[in-house]
Design brief:
415 residues; 9 strands; 11% strand; disordered N terminus; disordered C terminus
């Protein structure tokens, strides 16, 4: 008997529908609620970090981008942050007629690069695939600081989904679209979310990969919430049951018209990945979803729900500093509580009480590093900066991956 025929039929009812999107009025209400902090202000909450102790700028700190001894890197960062650009591939005519330096300035599509592990290897942990989706105001140079620190801490190679900054105003507009406006018109969705969805789905579809870990920071959490929404919509769509052609018809409905060659390539990659993900029976879909683990820092999404109706799948954890204004737009929002909550995020929250700062390396990863692998002087933390939440919640699974460990190897151990 064919084993595939013994599996239960695909049942879309086992998966949750996409939550209703917040209106623009609710987005503004969430922003006002985030600003209602006990002390300090916006700049302090994002850039200043802990005020209780000072230490030198660390090797992987994002502040290194401001070094006067690397003027080219600094100039590139300031230009990327201030000169508006379009988050899409360069049009064919412009690519032929204009020099690359001009094209890069005005068209900045999402890119990918592979960060090697701590020992410059790309093939360690072949059964795992790690992704990092960066946040707002991050160009490739800053993303390299982030991914280098992740590779150093976890000893794994990391695929970076470089959500390239298109200037600060353009990034903020992308965040607004990602937080809700794409729900008003489903053909509207940011380019980084499409590219991240295609890459993550291909990893989930690979039989050689047993675990897909996504680390998302700031705007990257919005992108990841969109990825989950795309997967959820595909699972609920009637077009998921189609067998031919070998790409998911739902993508045509979702992405709308294809007007450029790069859009065609992206549409085809995503469509085939969605078809491959949903074409098998539900048991296989569940096996793929169980591979996915999501760890967010300063989660500012509005909606990030489990996809399964009764099970906490995919696995999610969230980390936030109490006075990080960006986190207060999402995971720490006062609007997340109550029967009429407009912010809906599933998974345990690990909160660093009394702390400021939004930068991934400087304000999130460094405190964890100092707790798990303390040094001397300012690099010692005796208490867990992100302790488990109450109600008998388990300790952080992310900690179990530090320094090349695996989650299974650390279960039941003291660390």
């Amino acid at each position: 008997m064919n084993p595939a025929k013994s599996q239960p039929a695909f049942n879309p009812d086992k998966f949750l529908a996409r939550p209703a999107a917040n209106s623009l009025r609710e987005l503004l209400k969430a922003a006002c609620a985030a600003s209602d902090m006990d002390c300090g202000g916006f700049i302090s909450s994002v850039l200043c970090g802990c005020r209780k102790r000072a230490h030198p700028i660390r090797k992987f700190s994002e502040y290194n981008i401001l070094s006067p001894w690397r003027p080219t890197v600094l100039a590139r960062f300031l230009l990327d942050l201030s000169v508006p650009a379009l988050p899409e591939s360069t049009p064919d005519l412009a690519r032929m007629l204009l020099p690359p330096v001009v094209n890069r300035r005005f068209w900045r599509p999402t890119g990918f690069f592979r960060q090697p592990d701590e020992y410059a290897g790309f093939c360690s942990f072949p059964k795992e695939h790690w992704f990092f989706i960066n946040g707002i105001a991050t160009n490739a140079d800053v993303a390299r600081y982030n991914s280098a620190y992740l590779a150093h801490l976890f000893h794994r190679p990391v695929t970076v989904v470089n959500n390239a900054t298109c200037s600060l105003p353009a990034d903020l507009l992308e965040c607004m679209i990602g937080k809700g406006l794409q729900f008003c018109d489903k053909t509207i969705m940011t380019e980084p979310a499409w590219r991240a969805a295609a890459a993550i789905l291909e990893a989930l579809n690979s039989e050689a990969i047993e675990r897909v870990i996504v680390i998302a920071h700031s705007q990257g959490t919005i992108i990841m919430s969109n990825v989950l929404a795309v997967i959820g919509d595909a699972l609920k769509s009637d077009l998921a049951l189609e067998e031919e052609p070998k790409w998911h018809g739902f993508t045509k409905e979702l992405m709308g018209k294809v007007e450029t060659e790069s859009q065609k390539a992206l549409r085809n990659s995503l469509a085939h990945a969605l078809w491959e993900f949903t074409r098998d029976q539900s048991a296989h879909v569940m096996d793929r979803l169980k591979k996915l683990e999501i760890f967010t820092f300063a989660n500012c999404a509005d909606k990030m729900r489990y996809l399964h109706a009764t099970k906490p799948i995919p696995y999610m954890e969230h980390y936030a500093n109490e006075f990080d204004w960006v986190a207060r737009l999402g995971i720490l929002s006062p609007l997340r509580e109550g029967n009429e909550a407009t912010i809906e995020i599933d998974g345990p929250l690990f909160e660093q009480k009394g702390e400021w700062g939004h930068l991934l390396n400087e304000h999130y990863l460094a405190p964890i590093d100092d707790f798990l692998y303390p040094g001397t002087g300012p690099y010692v933390r005796e208490k867990d900066p992100f302790p488990p939440p109450g109600n008998g919640a388990a300790e952080s699974r992310l900690y179990e991956y530090f320094h090349g460990k695996s989650a299974e190897a650390w279960h039941g151990e003291e660390h």
